[in-house]
Amino acid sequence: MSDALDRIVAGNRVYAQRTSEHDPNTFVEMGRGQAPEILWIGCADSRVPETTICHCKPGDIFVHRNIANCVHADDLNVAAVVEYAVAHLKVKKVVICGHTKCGGANASLADADLGVTLNTWLHPVRELRRKHKAELEQLADDDARATRVAELNVQQGIEVVKQHPTVRQAVRDRGLTVHGLIYDIPAGQLRLLDDTRATGGSGLWTPANH
Amino acid sequence: MRLSVRDPHARSAGSRAAVRLFIGRGTPVTLRASQPSFLSPHPPTALLHIVPRTSTLLSLPAFSATLTSRRLAAQSQHRPFSSSTHRPWIWENIAEMAAEPTPEPNSQALRKYLQQSHDKIFESNKKWAEEQKVKNPEFFEKLSKGQEPDYLWIGCSDSRIPAEAITGLGPGEMFIHRNIANLVCNTDLNVMSVVNYAVRHLHVKHIVVCGHYGCGGVKAAMTPQDLGLLNPWLRNIRDVYRLHEQELDAIEGDKKYDRLVELNVLEQCRNVVKTAAVQGSYKKNGFPIVHGWVFGFQDGRLKDLEINFEKMLEDVQKIYNLTE
Ligand SMILES: [Zn+2]
Ligand SMILES: [Zn+2]
């Protein structure tokens, strides 16, 4: 067990050394402050590390991650993150990213008892599943259903974020935009969710020729 | 939405690859890619793969807008919680890119441009995916089967501290929660569900609470100002101050904040230890172990606050024992 810990301590040494070798000013610059352009609200899932999968570097993305990338209207944690990022850091984009093979979305396909904490947290996602029952039943298997629930949950999150007073103001005053993404784990690829109200589409746009 | 990709290999060493994203009516986002070896010992999992829908895209008025570095710079003038707004290389990069001619909206040249930029990112991504498969044939298959992370990381949302990058871990290795000032509040269903899931379902072996010196959240919390929605969240930090008032009052200047950052991490570790999930699992399995760390920007290193987990658990259980 201590091996696992040694590994990340050693990993950090490599990171610190390589970073200062690459550019000795990196940490001086970093110490001065942050100016990220993106707020990322993603899943806590270990397979979706935002900075790595977006080929970015430290300082680029302000991050909140929770179980199934939920944005509940009554959640102070995420509300504080949004407020800080939008009002004080003045990010330009808010991105909500769900993913395929999501444990939280999968658990929301049924009503298994996960303990009162997780049951309560996932309740709104399970409600989404109930609301879209007919559509979900059409899909081939639970994998496809979980992906669709993840998409619906991202769309729901976007609706909630857009109602945040500071976000509304920033959208009006300085063109802040809110976007939905789905990260496809088996493919290692990000997809942009369509704005359903604008297009009447299914929500997920996949390039036709691939 | 417009997407353009710069080939890192086509440019001089030390320059950065950049992806520009033009989404909707807003200003574009610039994603800069650094050399993978610089970011972490692991290669990136994926290239950014966002593809515009041509029909939507061509109708957007913002599409033909030319970006200038001035416009972007002007928008980031006021950032009260960031001690610096000056990152010269970013503006340099944007200025350079803004000089590129943008094809006319609805033109043939534009369609060609879109197709090319679209194809290019697909090709790079395909190439990369193939490389992963050569190195490790089961890479994606294994990832799609599920996750078995050893660690849960509870850190600050601060953009400068992406947990996996600063610890050299790859996808699938660390379960992550990040919020303002890495707080673990008893009544916060968000963080509590993360701890629950990580301990009871993923059986993580270590829980790391990681703060960082120069934390804007901690500074903001101690600012005598009404911060609206942030008040109730940041109140927790003032409570940490009150718990350690004597010690902190004896310290002058920036050192005081540094110590508050450390004490905040220690208190949040204690909050993790107070949960039934952690107490129950430790009694039954002998894990997880809780660690308190602080990241320092001066050298990029993690400092271990060396908490004695067993002692902390014992102390906590005098009052907060949730095991049977
Ligand atoms: Zn997930
Ligand atoms: Zn912070």
Give your account of this protein's structure.
The complex is a heterodimer of chains A (210) and B (324). Chain A is 51% helix and 15% strand. Chain A is of the alpha/beta class. Chain A has two domains: 1-33, no CATH class; 35-197, Carbonic anhydrase (Beta-carbonic Anhydrase, Chain A). Chain A has a five-stranded mixed beta sheet with strand order 2-1-3-4-5. In chain B, a hairpin with a 6-residue loop joins strand 7 (289-295) and strand 8 (302-304). Chain B is built from 14 helices and eight strands. Mean pLDDT of chain B is 70; it is low at 1-102 and 117-126. Chain B has 324 residues and is an alpha/beta fold. Classes of the chains: A alpha/beta (210), B alpha/beta (324). At the A-B interface, helix 1, helix 2, helix 3, strand 2 and helix 4 of A face strand 2, strand 3, helix 1, helix 5 and helix 6 of B. One zinc ion binds next to helix 5 of chain A. The site of one zinc ion has 7 residues of chain B, from helix 9.
How would you summarize the topology of this molecule?
The complex is a heterodimer of chains A (210) and B (324).
Chain A: H1 2-22, H2 26-32, E1 38-43, H3 50-53, E2 61-66, H4 76-88, E3 93-99, H5 103-107, H6 116-131, H7 133-137, H8 142-163, H9 165-174, E4 177-184, E5 189-192, H10 196-199
Parallel strand pairs in A: 1-2, 1-3, 3-4
Antiparallel strand pairs in A: 4-5
Chain B: E1 3-5, E2 17-21, E3 29-33, H1 36-39, H2 54-58, H3 69-75, H4 88-98, H5 108-135, H6 139-145, E4 151-156, H7 163-167, E5 174-179, H8 189-201, E6 206-212, H9 216-221, H10 230-243, H11 245-249, H12 254-273, H13 276-285, E7 289-295, E8 302-304, H14 309-320
Parallel strand pairs in B: 4-5, 4-6, 6-7
Antiparallel strand pairs in B: 1-2, 2-3, 7-8
The complex binds zinc ion (ZN) (2 copies).
